[in-house]
Structure to design on (293 residues):
């Protein structure tokens, strides 16, 4: 199948892109790497009248560290993130996650801004930006807005972006020295969308979590920051503490049923991931015994 007829405009600047979006409202769609937009158009799931191609806007590309903040431009591609020493040094969670996103052909074109704006609940990067407590930077007709990752994802393929707004960058504090991360997903084959996944960012002092963010994906209609993490922070993690945390996690999840898994299977896999995460981050293999039934 091919896309319905549409008009095409190659934006010459962010301002020009915003003018085009303001003129056409929800009849226009932004094109970044095209790895989700073009398949959706070809399947006629969406049929915009105008495609606004921002792919040539160099001002939206790049990775920079300043005053303890890592800033990534919206058009920065997966492959750029994978090769970046700033990401490897200051946000290795992201590099681990991207290795699981699709295949090289898609990673060569897909962008961080496109992934976040697309907001697929089974995507890796939305869960990572939750775990990293990132801020999404957006520009629109009324200027710039900064939106916390927790507020950005509002439903399946839905975000706090309005049709007139452009996601321009993502920022988060660089990982402090005592930080650690964990990333794992269950998928049928490497590169497939996850059945359930977990992106976690932690600060560990003297064998205890001083901070822990658990960003689950493919467990509901949007990426999910688990409140159960609070039960593991500033306490000695015993099998009983971990067991209580797993129950709290199962209670707060509301997973969907689809062709890949039932809600019960997703809850179970989320608990397996959390157990593995705690065991790996605290280096406590004995915690694995008997907490999951
Ligand atoms: C075979 C295949 C396998 C895939 N596997 C995975 C996977 O395992 N994990 C995963 O996460 N993804 C996967 N994807 C999807 C893909 O990685 C991302 O969704 C995609 O790269 C999004 O980035 P993009 O730059 O291509 O966005 P586009 O396709 O250009 O745009 C996606 C959406 O975001 C909007 N948009 C884009 N940029 C902006 C912006 N700056 N401001 C506002 N709105 C914007 C567009 O209008 C569109 O609605 C797969 C895709 C394919 C084709």
């Amino acid at each position: 199948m091919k896309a319905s007829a549409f008009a095409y405009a190659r934006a010459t600047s962010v301002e020009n892109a915003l003018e085009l979006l303001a003129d056409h409202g929800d009849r226009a769609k932004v094109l970044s790497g095209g790895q989700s937009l073009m398949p959706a158009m070809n399947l006629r799931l969406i049929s915009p009248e105008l495609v606004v191609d921002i792919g040539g806007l160099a001002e939206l590309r790049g990775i920079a560290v300043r005053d303890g903040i890592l800033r990534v431009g919206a058009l920065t591609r997966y492959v750029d993130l994978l090769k970046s020493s700033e990401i490897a040094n200051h946000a290795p969670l992201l590099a681990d996650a991207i290795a699981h996103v699709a295949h090289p052909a898609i990673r060569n074109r897909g962008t961080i801004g496109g992934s976040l704006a697309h907001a697929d609940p089974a995507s890796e990067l939305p869960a990572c930006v939750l775990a990293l407590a990132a801020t999404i930077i957006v520009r629109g007709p009324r200027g710039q807005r900064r939106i916390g990752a927790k507020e950005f994802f509002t439903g399946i393929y839905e975000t706090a972006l309005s049709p007139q707004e452009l996601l321009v960058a993502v920022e988060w504090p660089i990982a402090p020295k005592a930080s650690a991360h964990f990333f794992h997903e269950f998928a049928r084959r490497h590169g497939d969308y996850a059945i359930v996944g977990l992106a976690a960012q932690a600060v560990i002092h003297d064998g205890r979590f001083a901070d822990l963010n658990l960003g689950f994906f493919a467990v509901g209609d949007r990426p999910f920051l688990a409140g159960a993490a609070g039960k593991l922070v500033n306490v000695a993690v015993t099998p009983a503490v971990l067991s209580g945390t797993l129950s709290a996690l199962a209670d707060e999840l509301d997973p969907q049923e689809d062709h890949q898994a039932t809600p019960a299977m997703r809850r179970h896999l989320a608990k397996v991931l959390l157990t593995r995460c705690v065991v790996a981050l605290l280096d406590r293999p004995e915690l694995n015994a008997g907490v999951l039934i």
